[in-house]
Structures are given as C-alpha cells and as structure tokens.
Design goal:
By secondary structure, the chain is α/β, with parallel strands linked by helices. 44% of the residues lie in helices and 18% in strands. It has two domains: 220 residues, Rossmann fold (3-Layer(aba) Sandwich); 172 residues, Glycogen Phosphorylase B (Rossmann fold), CATH 3.40.50. An eight-stranded mixed beta sheet has the order 3-4-2-1-7-8-9-10, sandwiched between helices. The protein has a six-stranded parallel beta sheet with strand order 13-12-11-14-15-16, with helices on both faces. The protein has a two-stranded antiparallel ribbon with strand order 5-6. Helix 12 links the parallel strand 15 and strand 16. Helix 2 packs across helix 3. It starts with 8 loop residues before the first strand and ends with a helix. The C terminus is likely disordered.
C-alpha cells in the first residue's frame, strides 16, 4: 500500500444488493474482508433489505433499510427512503461514502456532506445506465432518434451528478471511464474488479459432462453465462448459434434464468441446453472448462466478470465491439463484431473454430490472470481513496481561506 491512512470509517451505499449474488455484492464483500483483515479501518454497508436493522460486529457495521422489490426482479430491491439512509449516515458519520448507484442515493450522500464537509464522496460507475436502461429500451418504443435524446439527457445528468464527487471510478476504460471523462468529469480512475481466477481453469474440463450432452470430441460446445433477459442479449447468441452449419454438430449451453428462457425453450431446438442458474462456483467452472467457445451479445458490459471467468477457463470469446468487451477481447483471444448482428457473430464463431484455438486459449488465460482482488483493493486504498481525501482537504482549505477573506 503506497500510502497509509489513519483508522477511518468507510461506507458503501448501494441499491444493487442481492442476497443470492451479483457483481456489486461480491465486490462489497471482498472490500469488507480486505478492510477487516488488511487495514485498521472499519466498514459500514447501507443496503436494502426486508426490514430496518442495524448489525454491529466490531469494525463491521451493516444497516439494512426496509425496501420493496424491484418490479419483475425477485432478488433486488428499491431503496427509496433517503430519510432512513441519511439517519444512518448521521448516526455513524463515515469518513468516506462510496455510491454504486446514480439514482436517489447519491443525493442522500451529497446532503449528508453538506452537514459534514469533511466526508469524502466516491462514485463507482458500475452500470452504464443511460444506454442500458434508457436509450436502448426506449429506442424500441419511441424510435432511435428520440431515444438518443433521452440518453443524452441522462448522460448530462451523470455529468452534473458526478462532478459533485471527490473521485469517480469506472471498471474499464471503454466500459465507462472514457465516457465519464467526455462529460467533463476530471477525476476519473479505472479500478477493475477482481475475479477468483484460481477457481477456473482448463483442468476442470469434464469429458463425462460433454458425454451427457451427446458430444464427441470434435463437436464444439458454445456456452453463455448470465441472465436470460433483453439487457444481456442471449437471444442474439441463440440466433447466431442457429445460423451455424448443422454439420458441425454444435451444442449451446445457456447458464442462467430470466424472462427470455420461455421464448428460447419455445424454439424447440434440442441442441440448446438450459440447466438454469448454477450456484456452485465449482460447477460453473466445470461447465466453462468443458466448453470450447464463450459467446455473449451484451453490448454494455462495464467490466465483464463472466468474460474473465471464461478466459480463465481457457475459452476464446466471441462478443460485440462495445463497452468493456473492447478492453477484454483482442484478436489473440477471440473475435468481436457489431452489436445485435447475429450473422456477424455466427461468422466470428466459425472464424474462431477455424483458428488456432490452443493459442487463443493460452492467450485468454494469460489475460485473465491479471485480475485479482488484491490489485483492485490496492487501487482503491492506495490511489482512489487517498486522492479523494486530498481533494476534500484542498477544498476545505479553499473554503476556509475564502471565509477568512470575507471576514
């Protein structure tokens, strides 16, 4: 750690909490473990839950705020009670507040900082929401031109919001950082998430699993991992798969659940297997290592955990040239094509199948091994957080000087 901080209370404030998993939850639990095991600091999490509750366990504090489920989502909740959030912040008065959302919660943190000017504010850009939740879905209803205007309004909102923070970080350059800088936000860093790459590897390949699918060694198995919904675009992967020559004898495995599952099942394609959501990391590693290509149509990845896990398993990746995919997949590790273009994806799958897949597998695994939670925490605690504290201190010095001159 480049610079030690005195004992402080670090707070994470998020809507994006699920009891069954998810990228933000994984990130926060790793951060808590790092704080408790590697630093003298304390950690406060303010998250949505079934009831109002405060659990204090020495240096670990968890505040849950009773919140309703997100419509259509059994695992996520809308934490809209800013008054309860501000009460928790007032009670514990953290030295630093990190927000992983861009909706109502950052404004609770900003309001708290008005009462406590020493508190540093960090924004984590976990989701490219103006594109994912506004522009792309709106374009299907009001047309691309009007949806583009709505998206630009949301990005303007992002700029106005994040310029109030002492530091902002994205999970990749093309998955957020470059876009944020274009909005005039000057203190933007890149902090990739960590991935438990040690759990994944080619040695987990299981011939018996492939045999259960009726596959011979020469028959390719494609795999996708993630929610089966419009945002993740598994339908594009399915369409690309169905364009492949039948003579390949290929199979496609979709690991996950979601609203598109019924539509895909209705195709009646026996070559497509949907085992559902796989909870066990070991089982996920076995599925990935037993496949030959990882395919994804997701255009708005901010980091791409599933991509890294697939690469750690020795899989070339066929994806789209957008978001964090640009940072994760090169010509040495796979192929990228246009968004929503199943024909191009099918052609890229064939190109990978005709390439030196052993070389691609080795390059993919080498790329994945650079991502660790240790390096992520080092970036936060040695670079991002000290920078935010320094910026806050300098701001306070300027304010104090202005007050003195006014007097």
């Amino acid at each position: 750690m480049a610079r030690q901080l005195g004992p402080r209370l670090f707070c994470d404030l998020t809507q994006s909490w699920s009891d069954v998993g998810g990228g933000v939850r994984t990130y926060l639990l790793h951060k808590r473990r790092h704080i408790l095991e590697q630093t003298p600091h304390s950690h406060l999490m303010i998250i949505p839950g079934t009831r109002d509750e405060v659990i204090e366990e020495k240096r670990a504090i968890t505040v849950t705020v009773a919140s309703r489920h997100v419509p259509g989502s059994p695992h996520y909740r809308l934490m809209l009670r800013n008054g309860a959030v501000r009460s928790a912040l007032e009670r514990f008065q953290p030295d630093l507040i990190e927000c992983q959302d861009a909706y109502n919660l950052p404004w609770a943190a900003i309001a708290h900082r008005k009462r406590h000017p020493d508190a540093a504010l960090i924004a984590a850009y976990m989701t490219d929401f103006p594109t994912v939740y506004v522009e792309r879905p709106f374009s299907k209803v009001i047309g691309s031109a009007a949806a583009s205007i709505c998206g630009r309004i949301c990005y303007s909102y992002c700029g106005a919001l994040y310029r109030r923070f002492d530091a902002t970080f994205a999970l990749s350059e093309n998955g957020g950082a470059a876009k944020l800088r274009s909005l005039g936000i000057d203190n933007v860093d890149v902090v990739p998430l960590g991935v438990e790459v040690g759990e994944f590897g080619p040695w987990r390949r299981d011939p018996s699993l492939r045999c259960q699918l009726g596959l011979r060694d020469e028959q390719p198995l494609l795999i996708y991992v993630g929610r089966l919904d419009g945002e993740k675009k598994p339908d594009v992967v399915v369409e690309a798969f169905r364009r492949l020559p039948e003579g390949l004898g290929a199979r496609l495995v979709l690991l996950g659940e979601g609203p598109l599952r019924a539509d895909i099942a209705a195709l009646g394609d026996e070559r497509i297997v949907m085992p559902g959501y796989v909870k066990s990391r070991g089982e996920l590693a076995r599925w990935l290592a037993s496949a030959d290509i990882y395919a994804s149509g997701m255009a708005d990845e901010t980091f791409g955990v599933s991509i890294i896990e697939a690469q750690a398993s020795g899989l070339p990746v066929v994806g789209v040239a957008a978001g964090a995919m640009i940072d994760r997949v090169s010509r040495q590790t796979g192929r990228l094509g246009p968004v929503d273009d199943a024909e191009a994806m099918a052609a890229n799958i064939m190109a990978v199948l005709c390439s030196d897949r052993m070389a691609m597998a080795a390059a993919a695994r080498a790329h994945a091994l650079q991502f660790s939670w240790d390096s992520s925490m080092e970036a936060l605690f040695a670079r991002v957080y000290p920078s935010a504290f320094e910026r806050r201190r300098q701001g306070q010095v300027v304010l104090s000087g202005s007050a003195a001159l006014a007097a």
